[in-house]
Write a structure and sequence with these properties.
Shape: globular
Radius of gyration: 18 Å
Distance between the termini: 28 Å
Structural class: mainly alpha
Helix content: 55-70%
Length: about 260
């Protein structure tokens, strides 16, 4: 079977499970996509290290860099909005310190699941056949479309959120392409979500389960600026930050993580 057909088959299997009404939790979802990756790679005589999961010191360092980058990007969006007077923070009396740890663990599983699914085996096999950027565009569009059922994905917010999620997907894919490792994109994905939810108190892609030390109170500003109930990922400022990050990473002289 050609690589691109294997990629489509890989993506089809989780989609079929969802259509059949099987919606596992994030832990099982992460384990399933890792198992699926291992199985498809084993048929090719490869291992998970070839996917960008070579767990060595450099991998761990790239993971930490990614987390810092994700926190920094979300912090930049939030502080810019705060500087424009679009919101203010109030203390969240329901917050407990343990929420930072449980949030990090949950978002780490999200990062493993979504990066293995969208920057792992399917992306890498499509890139082998069609080239990196055609694969980037296909997976970025798919990544955005799976968020369309999230709360807050209505009206103009849907357009801004779709654009920004696609830009974030392109940034994550570029993280892999520059390093040939999933460490940097996984770290960026984790830091992005954790900062947005557990540090800054905003909804994460429309969900509201994350607990933060404070809660943002939006002022009378347009949703295209604040992101509204969807969160910072639907803000026009997020668009600018993503574009800047993509340009910066494209110019960065990074050393590949694999030998």
């Amino acid at each position: 079977m050609a690589p691109h057909w294997r990629a489509f088959l890989f993506l089809l299997l989780p989609a079929l499970l969802a259509l059949l009404g099987f919606h596992p939790g994030i832990l099982l979802s992460a384990l399933m996509v890792l198992g699926l990756s291992w199985a498809f790679l084993a048929l090719e005589g490869r291992d998970l290290a070839s996917l960008g999961l070579r767990l060595n010191a450099r991998w761990g360092l790239d993971l930490l860099w990614g987390i810092g980058l994700g926190v920094g990007l979300m912090g930049l969006v939030a502080l810019s909005l705060r500087g424009l007077g679009a919101f203010h923070w109030e203390p969240n009396l329901a917050f407990r310190g343990i929420h930072l740890g449980t949030g990090a663990a949950s978002f780490a599983l999200v990062a493993v699941h979504e990066e293995c699914l969208f920057r792992g085996y399917p992306f890498q096999r499509l890139a082998e056949v069609f080239g990196a950027w055609p694969a980037q565009l296909v997976l970025a569009l798919l990544f955005a479309l799976i968020h369309w059922g999230n709360p807050g994905m209505v009206g103009p917010t849907r357009s801004w959120a779709t654009l920004n999620i696609m830009l974030a997907a392109l940034l994550l894919g570029l993280c892999y392409l520059r390093t040939r490792s999933l460490a940097l994109p996984m770290g960026l994905h984790l830091g992005w979500n954790w900062a947005q939810g557990n540090l800054l108190g905003f909804p994460v892609s429309g969900t509201t389960f994350a607990q933060s030390p404070w809660q943002p109170v939006l002022h009378d500003s347009p949703q295209w600026l604040t992101g509204g109930p969807f969160g910072l990922e639907a803000s026009a400022l997020c668009t600018l930050v993503c574009l800047g990050a993509i340009l910066s990473l494209g110019l960065w002289k990074v050393r590949p993580s694999v030998s």
